[in-house]
Design a protein that fits this description.
Blueprint: E1 6-10, H1 13-18, H2 20-27, H3 34-37, H4 39-49, E2 54-62, E3 65-79, E4 82-89, E5 101-102, H5 108-120, E6 127-134, H6 137-146, E7 152-165, H7 171-176, H8 180-196, E8 199-205, H9 206-210, H10 213-221, H11 233-244, E9 248-255, E10 258-268, E11 271-279, H12 288-304, E12 308-313, H13 317-322, E13 325-335, H14 339-368
Parallel strand pairs: 4-6, 11-12
Antiparallel strand pairs: 1-2, 2-3, 3-4, 3-5, 6-13, 7-12, 7-13, 8-9, 9-10, 10-11
């Protein structure tokens, strides 16, 4: 491997804690994604979700300077019915980004060859997953690095992401561009809600927003979100971190002084990431989440003047009503030179396409019959 770089593998939380300043200095190169690449975000996530997985953070140094971070968890899974040891980008459904963190100034050819060469020297894994990522700089970087990895890899679309570019966009003009049915629905729901009592909307950010986390928790406890078995604790602690950097944005709807709906957003650079919507299930038929979303978008365009709203992963119907761009969420898979790694690669590249073609043929024959 190149003498230009050196690697340090971090497999425990104390080692992870020690590189906070270096980590954040590298992540700060990504202005609009920094919050979800920051050490604080990963620290919070690991506190709640690490559980029985093992930590495997690959860090690459050029001299004394940290130039790459590949944050993985190790876990046992079955891939195409093959039991494998898998390295997976740290994150889950609560993570808008699950990425490598790379110094922009480094040669992707040399760094990719070194990083994945070092990764292969780690024993006991068969397949590594990077992502999911949507199209953009972080996606392109991962692809370029893997092109120089010297092994088998592939990418697979696993979900989608809706976004709304809104640079220079005024809310009134934006709303007029929406489907007539959407505009009429907003009016109807506002009228119905007004008949229930006094409706108040609060949109607060930073430290002011942190003071309203109790109202968010109140709504969460009365919503269908209880089925997540997570409770509001994760988002309460996330709010404390986000408030310190003025990243937290909370929108709340009150009926006669009582909170009945809440939306949890993160402001990061020129972007706003939509993380969570919760509402008192007794008011579901009033579409309180939809009404509150309308207020949030007005605030983001006219007050914050953000350039991009990220609606997060998923293809829920409402997103196509409000967003403009649909992008793929893609996983990258790197296969180690092990027996199980080779079998997994064969299953992905040979067996799965055959099964899909066979299934399509059966479907066509069924229609013909």
């Amino acid at each position: 491997m190149s003498a230009e770089y050196s690697v340090v593998i971090i497999d425990n939380l104390s080692g992870f804690s020690r590189i906070q300043q270096e980590w954040d200095a590298l992540a700060s190169q990504y202005h609009d994604e920094y919050f979800f690449l920051s050490h604080g975000w990963y620290s919070l996530w690991l506190n709640y979700f690490l559980k029985d997985s093992s930590l495997c953070i690959v860090t690459v140094y050029k001299g004394s300077r940290l130039v790459a971070i590949a944050p993985f968890l190790g876990k046992d899974e079955r891939i195409k019915r093959i039991p494998v040891r898998k390295l997976e980008s740290i994150g889950n459904a609560y993570s808008p980004l699950r990425s490598l963190i790379i110094d922009r100034s480094e040669s992707k050819q040399r760094l990719g060859a070194f990083l994945f060469g070092a990764l292969r020297k780690i024993s006991g894994w068969d397949i590594a997953q990077i992502g999911p990522l949507y199209d953009g700089e972080l996606y392109s970087q991962a692809e370029e690095l893997l092109c120089n990895c010297g092994g088998n890899w592939l990418h697979k679309v696993v979900d989608c992401n809706w976004r709304l570019p809104c640079e220079g966009l005024a809310y009134d003009g934006y709303l007029k561009s929406r489907d007539k049915g959407v505009r009429q629905e907003i009016k109807r729901r506002n009228k119905k809600l007004g008949e229930l009592g006094t409706i108040e909307i609060k949109i607060v950010k930073g430290h002011e927003a942190a003071a309203y986390m109790a109202d968010y928790s109140n709504v969460y406890e009365k919503s269908w979100k209880q089925a997540e078995h997570l409770g509001p604790g994760f988002h309460v602690d996330l709010g404390k971190i986000a408030a310190r950097g003025n990243n937290l944005l909370l929108a709340l709807m009150y009926l006669d002084g009582q909170p009945i709906a809440a939306q949890y957003r993160i402001l990061c650079g020129d972007k706003c990431f939509f993380l969570k919507t919760a509402y008192d299930s007794r008011y579901k038929r009033y579409s309180v989440g939809l009404v509150l979303l309308n207020h949030v978008l007005q605030y983001l365009m006219d007050s914050e003047q953000v350039k991009m709203v990220d609606f997060g992963p998923g293809n829920e119907t409402y997103k196509s009503d409000w967003a403009e761009i649909k992008r793929n969420y893609t996983n990258f898979y790197l296969f180690n030179k092990t027996v199980k790694g080779a079998l997994a690669h064969f299953a992905y590249t040979k067996v799965t396409p055959i099964v899909k073609r066979f299934g399509k043929r059966l479907e066509e024959e069924g229609h013909e019959g």
